Amino acid sequence: MGGKKKLSLKQMERMQVKKDEEEKKKKEKTGALKEKKPFGIIPPDPKSEKIVGELKKMRVLTPYTVASRFNIRISTAKDFLEQLEENGVIQLVSGSHNIKIYKTQD
């Protein structure tokens, strides 16, 4: 009965050429693939002057921003921020059970 029409050889060749060109463009666009690095489990030293200096440059401290900055997991960043709060380096501005927002002590 019905069904898809069988393509001619010329039509199949055109489709194949078009498909190859698209794949070539995708490869050029993506370039070299970046090497994935696993996120760290060990947080940076909270007593380090260099780390505290980096944190003071940031206006708002959330677990996501700290995790992105130091390439650590978000759960590790949460623990790290709690340690800094205990040390008195940062203070809690607002938070819920999901997210906490900190700022540096002036």
Walk me through this protein's architecture.
This protein is mainly alpha-helical and 106 residues long. The protein has a domain at 49-104: Arc Repressor Mutant, subunit A (Orthogonal Bundle). The protein is built from four helices and two strands. A two-stranded antiparallel ribbon has the order 1-2. The longest helix has 22 residues, at 9-30. It is elongated, with a radius of gyration of 26 Å. The termini are far apart.
CATH architecture of the domain at 49-104: Orthogonal Bundle
Structural Rg: 26 Å
Overall mean pLDDT stands at 87
What structural category characterises the helix and strand content?
mainly alpha
- Major beta sheet, strand line-up: 1-2
Q: What is the end-to-end distance? A: 80 Å
Report the CATH C-level class of the domain at 49-104. Answer: Mainly Alpha
CATH fold type of the domain at 49-104? Arc Repressor Mutant, subunit A
Summed up, the helix count is: 4
Morphology: elongated
What share of the residues lie within helices? 40-55%
Task: Tell me the strand percentage band.
Answer: 5-15%
Put the structure in a nutshell:
The chain has 106 residues and is mainly alpha-helical. The chain has helices at 9-30, 49-57, 63-70, 74-87, and strands at 90-95, 100-104.
Summarize the helices and strands and which ones pair or pack.
Layout (H helix, E strand, L loop, with lengths): L8 H22 L18 H9 L5 H8 L3 H14 L2 E6 L4 E5 L2
Helix pairs in contact: 3-4
